[in-house]
Amino acid sequence: MTVVTRFAPSPTGFLHIGGGRTALFNWLYAKRHGGKMLLRIEDTDRERSTNAAIAAILDGLKWLGLDWDGDVVHQFSRAARHREVAETLLAQGRAYYCYATQQELEEMRETARKEGRPSRYDGRWRDRDPSEAPKDLKPVIRLKAPTEGETVVEDEVQGRVVWQNKDLDDLVLLRSDGTPTYMLAVVVDDHDMGVTHVIRGDDHLTNAARQTQIYQAMGWEVPKMAHIPLIHGPDGAKLSKRHGALGVEAYRSMGYLPVALRNYLVRLGWSHGDQEIFSTEEMIQSFDLKNIGRSPARFDFAKLENLNGHYMRLSQDEDLVQAVEVILPEIGPERGLGPTFPPELREKLLAAMPGLKERAKTLVELLDSAYYLYAQRPLRLDDKAAGLLADGRARLAGIVEKLEAVDEWNARSVEAVVREHAEVIGAKLGQVAQPLRAALTGRATSPGLFDVMAVLGKDETLSRLQDQLSGAPAA
């Protein structure tokens, strides 16, 4: 048997971080077993489904590095096939026309509420003669579900889950306007697409009982199911925007690498011993369903940041520059940068990258720490840097002239000059380096000072020092 999984998002918004994890689990399981992952856009809600959302979902999956097999299936385009199955069940006596009015349905709900029980359709048209039907009312088609016994799902994550059939009513398959319901469409599509494993959030667990009954009514094999606990915030509450319930594209804009986000998501609810860092190949070889926990996973931004920092340090310098360039149109303007790096700045950024990536945990942090490369002269110092320079300005007296005398400008040669200057004036190296850093970068912290000076070059270094030591007004 070829394993076939599917990811089936509704295009009513961005690719949610939880959806990204579900897609990843489906992708890994299919890869692990040499199978396929299919992609289905569940766009039957025509009012809320948008082309922009579909584009965002596809873009998010591609950015995460999750590809799919075959063409994208659009559920709405298969409505005729869904109706065909509903009518087949009707012809076989496994479904029936229901003429209950909205008022009757409301009365059923109200009675259930008063009696303190779940609201269920009472089956009043289940065995009724259609000749009694009101002529001006279009019926729905309902499944004639079993009323005795039980419906069982042997879930790969949740274990054996049992529903008493008396507690499940006859669900609607086809609405009065002829459109299929979600429950019917999902079953028909999964069957026709040859899906062998349905891996999805546990908010669909109740749907599993309903859908199993449709499979059984059609005489189709029920796929294996695995219902994954949802992601919660660090406080244990349902994941919200303040916790990180954002679209995948938001994480890209915040400066996370796809490889880091993918690694973080795989460990949300799944474990493989104590291992935290996985290559893509290790994920594929190790992933299984039995090691998915039954408790909700907790989203932790600090862990994600640390993991992202790890991957940034491992990344090639050129790859990081390219990754920043991808989000530069979004994050550049507020920093006085255009949508692309000028060639000279790009070259400096590449040269400075070994020092920049050691400290930063996101690409946004990295660009901010590279402020000294693109800051306009004379630099505007932040409060800490201004304090350091004010305190140490006197200790920098004469250093410009000494640096002007340097012929071969590199980190080693400028370090030697600064060290000698500190020794001559009887100061510790840090007492000279701190105000020097402030004058050159506008910040109290930066990559290694001498690397900074080497990347800036002799002319820019001296110009910035002259600006600050002469008291030139900030830009």
From TrEMBL:
InterPro entries linked to this entry: aa-tRNA-synth_I_cd-bd, aa-tRNA-synth_I_codon-bd_sub2, aa-tRNA-synth_I_CS, aa_tRNA-synth_I_cd-bd_sf, Glu-tRNA-ligase_bac/mito, Glu/Gln-tRNA-synth, Glu/Gln-tRNA-synth_Ib_cat-dom, GluQ/Sye
The keyword Nucleus is assigned to this record: no
Offer one example of a GO biological process linked to this entry: glutamyl-tRNA aminoacylation
Motif ('HIGH' region) on chain? 9-19
Instruction: Give the Gene Ontology MF terms in alphabetical order.
Output: ATP binding; glutamate-tRNA ligase activity; tRNA binding; zinc ion binding
Give the span(s) annotated as Disordered: 109-134
**Segments forming a coiled coil:** none
Domain Glutamyl/glutaminyl-tRNA synthetase class Ib catalytic spans what residues? Answer: 3-305
Annotated Gene Ontology cellular components are: cytosol
Q: Where in the cell is it found?
A: Cytoplasm
Annotated ATP binding sites = 241
Q: Which keywords does this Swiss-Prot/TrEMBL entry list?
A: Aminoacyl-tRNA synthetase, ATP-binding, Cytoplasm, Ligase, Nucleotide-binding, Protein biosynthesis
Q: Which residues form the Aminoacyl-tRNA synthetase class I anticodon-binding domain?
A: 344-468
Catalyzed reaction equations: tRNA(Glu) + L-glutamate + ATP = L-glutamyl-tRNA(Glu) + AMP + diphosphate
Note the superkingdom of the native organism. Bacteria
Q: Where is this motif: 'KMSKS' region?
A: 238-242
Output the Gene3D superfamilies linked to this UniProt entry: 1.10.10.350, HUPs (3.40.50.620)
* Alphabetized SUPFAM superfamilies for the sequence: An anticodon-binding domain of class I aminoacyl-tRNA synthetases, Nucleotidylyl transferase
Q: What EC number(s) would the UniProt record show?
A: 6.1.1.17
Stated family: Belongs to the class-I aminoacyl-tRNA synthetase family. Glutamate--tRNA ligase type 1 subfamily.
NCBIfam families assigned:
gltX_bact
PANTHER family of this UniProt entry? GLUTAMATE--TRNA LIGASE, GLUTAMATE--TRNA LIGASE, MITOCHONDRIAL-RELATED
Provide the function of this protein.
Catalyzes the attachment of glutamate to tRNA(Glu) in a two-step reaction: glutamate is first activated by ATP to form Glu-AMP and then transferred to the acceptor end of tRNA(Glu).
Q: Which HAMAP family match?
A: Glu_tRNA_synth_type1
Q: How does it assemble?
A: Monomer.
This protein is called what?
Glutamate--tRNA ligase
Q: What is the lineage of its organism?
A: Bacteria, Pseudomonadati, Pseudomonadota, Alphaproteobacteria, Hyphomicrobiales
Gene of this entry: gltX
